[in-house]
Amino acid sequence: MNLVQPGAMYTDSINQLDLRFSKIFKAGQHRFSAHFDLNNAFNSSGLLGRNGTYGNSWLAPLTIIDASLVKVSGQWDF
To answer: Can you tell me the distance from the alpha carbon of 14 to that of 56, in angstroms, rounded to the nearest whole number?
Structure first.
């Protein structure tokens, strides 16, 4: 028996901005690229999942978007 009609309840939309900045350096036949990545730039904490089982923890958040992450990387082509 459904307590809530299917399709009647939705979570809020999720907004996440991921950025990447890259620069390519050339020296003869060699090429080096530097990268700077920023995931979840605005540190959104949107819900990815909720508890759907009826009881004391009904609709309690189960998972949220990961916190901001910064990554610096490079690539060398020779």
So the answer is: 25
Is residue 5 assigned to a domain? no
Q: Which of 14-18, 32-36, 48-52, 73-77 has the lowest mean pLDDT?
A: 48-52
**Tokens 């003869």 appear where?**
28
Identify the domain containing residue 60 by its residue range: 19-77
Half-sphere exposure of 64 (CA within 13 A, CB side): 9
pLDDT at 43: 93
* Residue 19, CA atoms < 13 Å, CB-side half-sphere: 9
* Contacting residues for 42 by C-beta, under 8 A, at least 6 apart: 15, 16, 17
Is the whole-model pTM more than 0.85?
Answer: no
